[in-house]
Design goal:
Helix content is 38%, strand content 18%. The protein has 176 residues and is an alpha/beta fold.
């Protein structure tokens, strides 16, 4: 708050600094895009794997996902939300396996970030759940590992070009 120079935060805002300019990812729209994609892929049921560090009402990816499923006429059971430890899926492995096995196939799964999705791939491989026949999986961040896991992971990526242009425009407006 003591900076005299124009400051624009990229990717997140700081607590008690809401007055500072920031360029953020549109998580609501990203969640909506994933839901539309999974519906268009013929999924019969849907699962959201979030991070236990966020409450579902604060997770705009989940909010967008759930609202687009509703607009698409797809049923979403609140029991199909799994809040996992982002550092390890071991605590949630049984819940994930049981959820994926009990739902009508194919199951559309959206993970809060790619590392959770990679964990889901491991669980599916371990228990003979086929990707993409049984589970259609989407992550978030488009990390480099998306291309090297088997099968490769579909993931939402940031539009760095648009974010960079927004940052530049904000900085110039603050300078003026």
């Amino acid at each position: 708050q003591n900076y005299v120079l124009p400051t624009v935060f990229v990717g997140r805002t700081l607590a008690n600094m809401e007055t500072q300019a920031a360029v953020l990812v549109n998580n609501l729209d990203a969640g909506r895009q994933v839901a539309s994609h999974l519906v268009s892929c013929g999924c019969n049921s849907f699962v959201y794997v979030g991070t236990s560090q966020l409450k579902s009402g604060e997770d705009m990816r989940f909010v967008g996902f759930k609202s687009q499923l509703a607009e698409s006429g797809a049923d979403f059971d609140p029991n199909n939300v799994i809040m996992a430890n982002p550092d390890s899926l071991s605590d949630s492995r049984v819940q994930i396996k049981e959820t994926l096995n009990r739902l009508p196939k194919p199951v559309g799964v959206f993970c809060y970030h790619d590392m959770l999705a990679v964990g889901i791939i491991g669980i599916c491989n371990r228990y003979g759940i086929s990707i993409p026949d049984d589970v259609r999986l989407v992550g978030f961040d488009n990390l480099a590992l998306c291309e090297i896991v088997s099968p490769p992971l579909t993931s939402i990526s940031y539009r760095f070009d648009k974010m960079a242009m927004s940052v530049i425009e904000l900085v110039f407006s603050l300078i003026k």
